Hints:
The chain contains 3 helices and 6 strands; from the N terminus they run ββααββαββ. It is α+β, with helices and mostly antiparallel strands. Strand 3 and strand 4 form a beta hairpin. Helix 2 runs antiparallel to helix 3.
Amino acid sequence: MHLTEGTGSAWSGAGERPGTRTRDTVVDSAATARAHAERTVRARWTAQGRTPHQQDMMDLSLVVSELVTNAIRHGAGLAGFDVRVTPDGVRIAVHDHSDVIPEAAAGSGSLPPWHHGSGYGWPLVIRLARDIDVRLRPGGGKTVSVLVPLRDASAPDAGGH
């Protein structure tokens, strides 16, 4: 997948997306998606003279890791990855190739009583993200979109989460 610097998007090589490509980066794993999300946030916030709170950046990394890993493992592969900085935080959208909506998508974030060491991803996403939205894509597959809240490190309430 290729990354467009200005939009914070990554997509599969099938067809061009609008916008100007200033450099190419491969986003094919949770690690490369995390790095891209962090670069996008830090670039935007630095331009505004702000510094994102370290705990919020760790939360962002965890959410990105879980969503991308789920797309790769359970969603028939990663079809795209978008990062958009908003006034409230970071909007992450992960596109995959599967039409299956995870049962836990509308869950409470607690682990089921029969939990035996796997399936931590959705509960973690539900606890750390807001505005979780799962939609089927017209051409097949789905998009999981979440908002990860961000605080300025210098803000008075940045000490607690």
